[in-house]
Structures are given as C-alpha cells and as structure tokens.
Write a structure and sequence with these properties.
The protein is α+β, with helices and mostly antiparallel strands and 179 residues long. It folds into two domains: 35 residues; 134 residues, Sandwich (Immunoglobulin-like), CATH 2.60.40. It contains three helices and eight strands, in the order H-E-E-E-E-E-E-E-H-H-E. Strands 3, 4, 5, 7 and 8 form a five-stranded antiparallel beta sheet that branches. Strands 1-2-6 form a three-stranded antiparallel beta sheet, with no helix packed on it. A hairpin with a 4-residue loop joins strand 3 and strand 4. It is elongated and about 95 Å long.
Length: 179
C-alpha cells in the first residue's frame, strides 16, 4: 500500500467516525432532553383504591391512595389547586361514564414539595353507591415554573395549544363497589 492508498483509507475512516459521532450525539441529545428531560421533574404515581363496607348496604366508602415518587433529578412542586381527583360512575349497559364526585380534600394546601427520590402520599375518600363500577382519575398539576419549562420544551417539537394548557401527571383505575 502506498501513501495515496493510506490517505484514502484514513479519509474513509474519518468520514465513518464523523457520521457515527453525529448519529450518537443526536441520539444522546434526544434521549437527554426529550425522553429523560433532565431539567424537569419526573413523577411516578402509584394509585390504590379500596372499597370498604358501611352500615348502609347501599353505600360503600371508596378510599383513594396516591403515592407520588419523584424519580427525577430535580425537586418537584405539585400545584394542588389545579390538581384533580375525579370519580366517574360507569354505566355497563351503555359503556358511558358520568362524573359522580370530585374529591378536593387536599386543596387547602397551595403546593406540595417533593425532593429528589422523595415520596408524597395523598389519601382521599368518597362515598359511592353499591352496586356500581367506578372510574377513578387522579391528576396532579405541575407548578407554574415547571409547567413553563415543559411548555417551552414541547413547543419546540410542535405541540398544540391544548397539549400545552396544563401539564402534570395522571393515573387511572377502574373499581367495583363489590367487596
């Protein structure tokens, strides 16, 4: 192999390494800033619903336990005034649901602060009719600062105004009033 052949081989090697670096760098950037969103909170919600008998056979007590775990790399602030716990009653014949009640026991607070790797438990309850099937929907809203960070990030990828209106974390569960 002469010097010109080595020059061609090194040129090809340089081009391959440059292309690989661009692809790996793009993948890393996408993962870091869009999938992991390092600068934003990452909340995981565990939802547990239990039905408890009462003295009245036509009524049950539904306990709604939400555990919020901050798995992100920054502390998180939950804005309780815009957070919602809804209970819908499902009509099994028509497969429709109607709002049965909204729980707002925790709305006396302004914000919940959850440190990195921290947890927060929210316990709420509702009286429900028996028999019945219910859909529990919990939504915990981000603080205004975290919402702005989220909106700025998703606006850059072309999100609609409806998607940017309110950000936070949602979890749902269907329960039966049967014990």
């Amino acid at each position: 192999m002469n010097l010109t052949d080595w020059k061609d081989v090194t040129e090809i090697g340089k081009d391959v390494v440059s292309a690989a670096a661009i692809i790996i760098g793009g993948w890393w950037s996408y993962k870091k800033f869009f999938r992991e969103a390092d600068g934003e909170p990452s909340i995981e919600i565990k939802l547990e619903c239990d039905v408890v008998a009462t003295e009245d056979s036509g009524v049950r007590l539904l306990t709604i336990k939400s555990e919020l775990c901050n798995n992100g790399k920054i502390p998180s602030v939950i804005f309780s005034e815009r957070s919602i716990i809804d209970v819908y009653k499902i009509n099994p014949d028509t497969q429709t649901r109607t709002l049965y009640c909204q729980c707002d026991y925790y709305k006396n607070y302004q914000t919940f602060n959850i440190p990195v790797n921290g947890k927060m438990n929210v316990l709420d309850y509702a009286y429900i009719e028996h028999p019945g099937i219910y859909h529990v929907n919990v939504f915990f809203a981000q603080s205004a600062i975290d919402n702005k960070k989220f909106r700025d990030r998703i606006k850059s990828v072309g999100a609609s105004d409806a998607e940017m209106e309110l950000s936070g974390w949602r979890c749902e569960k269907v329960v039966s009033s049967a014990i």
